[in-house]
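Hi R.,

As promised, here are both runs. First protein below:
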Amino acid sequence: MMAQAGSAPRPPALQELTRFGLGGTADSSNPFLAQINAALWTALGVGAGGTGSLIQSLNKEASANDLGLLFQTGFSTRALLGLFGSDQFRLAVSPDGSTFLDALRADPATGIVDQPNLPRFKGYTNYDNYVGVGAWTKIGINNTEYNDQGAFDAGANRFVAPVSGTYLFGATLMFKVNASTSARMSGRLVINSSDVLRGSYGESSATHRSEATALWLQSMAALSAGDTVELQGSFRAHDGYFAAEQTSFWGAKIG
């Protein structure tokens, strides 16, 4: 191939190379090495004889093998993206290069995306909570059906935000009679034991039916890490109980 004037000669092809080092020395562990500050892959345009598209394929031999990209700091991996040990697509992060936490997983059979480390919980009380007239009382949500990231503190009956973000909460308050079904049942969600979460307050004012009349609450909150949310109930006119098993509190981070 003839070289252009004023330029170094270009070989027509490079075939069967065993190592290639650009700006550094490739070795057996890294037969292709590029030590550079920027790189560009661009499609060959139609005018130059190409299609205008650019597709890069990465292939592994079998499902159990690994295929992906590693993102490192000081050659210690902080994130990985790809198919690792299966055909499930994963995005995982690491604080130290050895422990990895999956942020996203995509099921190849269904296309369903999961966030396995998303803070979420559903808790309930396993005893009838007595509440007097006019007294806002924290409900003893002391058991959990699930509690991802351990964000719900069943001992203190409250949710503790593990990270800052937007959270969605909901609750069910189930009435149980003490002396009268004319009790007026109220409920609310409270942030940091003092601030009522706007939009979470509600009251059932009709004549109640024991272990059938329920009050449902739902609202969103922008929380900082360490903020707490608890469920509170109250009665007016007559006292009563918030029933075991069906009185529940749930939430999840949504943004």
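And here is the second one, sequence first, then its structure tokens:
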Amino acid sequence: MALPALGPALPEIILAIGAIVMVLIGAIQGERATRLLEGLALALLAVALAVVVSAGGKLLTFNDGFIVDGFARFMKVLTLLGAGAAILLSAETLRRDGAMRFEFPILVVLATIGMMMMISANDLIGLYVGLELQSLALYVVAAFDRDNARSTEAGLKYFVLGALSSGMLLYGGSLVYGFTGTVTFTGIAAATQGGHAGIGLIFGIVFIAAGVAFKISAVPFHMWTPDVYEGAPTPVAAFFASAPKMAAMAMVIRVFVGAFPGAIHEWRQIIVFISIASMALGAFAAIGQRNIKRLLAYSSIANMGYALVGLAAGTPDGVRGVMTYMAIYLATTLAAFACVLMMRRDGKLVEDISELAGLSRTNGWMAFAMSMMMFSLAGIPPLAGFWAKWYVFSAAIDAKLYVLAVVGVLTSVVGAYYYLRLVKVMYFDEPKPAFEAADYGVRTVLLLSTIFVLALSFLPAPLFDAAEAAAKSLF
């Protein structure tokens, strides 16, 4: 039997070999190797990024179960950037708090391999393998600060609910296989070509939707998100809010657009419900939050709802809107968490929103960056977040999903309240003592993310064109 071509999976292979080397180094040198492993992890992610960017065309391998196309490359770039930023944000912060161990960069690399497999999966088996590889690493990362009761609780909640969602996804996949006779996305698409999805297949789609909704923390499978974001170390929460969301959203798009184009009327109803529920809960539940990490958790739920507005359209324009939205969401979220990591007094991180009082008079640059991220997340023109919502709402209107678009606009107005409240606290409240100097990695992530968001605010065309080209590869 001929061996499959390994070229399309070269970035994943590089990361896998690198992870094995990192494990050996860590086992031999122990905690002394932590800084070396952090640098090695960043180097591996950079090499994988270069390989992803340099590739071209549509490539298939492993009996067409693994696909690399424009869509996969675009989402892999976002995932790798998110993973690299997470390592930069975590290194010195976890070390200061006594929670850094050499296993952390290894777990990030292993989780990234799973994310990239999820993005390139072209059948249900590859999808599940990638999902579990990512999840097993993230279970450990969520409880990484094992001496902290809140972190341990966060890890346990994520593990129990994650295992439940994986089981639902697996059961949905088995139903789809039972009623179509295949696990490949192209085979499933051919079986549903006539547009007559049977009741068994619909149940399979529902269970798959439930499983993937957990991974993107969409309502009604969002319950883990606020507790995990608050309980896990802040750099870990930043990681959860960035790279895994890119991979999970790519998985959602690949499954529904790639495998069920003939059942769009069935799965569109599910996506519309999840989208509306996520936007509404994220907008209203965040209003009363006093902890900034919990506020960002509800913001993440709402943002996944906005992104799903584009998917509900089921068109190339809709997918383009989702991809644009996720790129802008990644930059704004990383910058927001970088600001949270700069909230340190007396050697400890503080999380109450009131601690930002008068920040504009003690650290004007941080206040400006945080304000730009809040305005962008609120969708205030002409910032990048406005264009993100413009693209997904336009796709929904073109698909005649008027109610969905109107609900999205209304919940954006509600959400603007708690975003602008942070700006009010920073610029108009009586100042509190200044924060301590931030770490180099945190400042780097904040600077690059802020530049990216401001550049896209006035020149969104390059990102939009790249997303358009990538979206066309799916159709």
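A quick note on the second one: The chain has a mean pLDDT of 88. Let me know what you think.

Best,
J.
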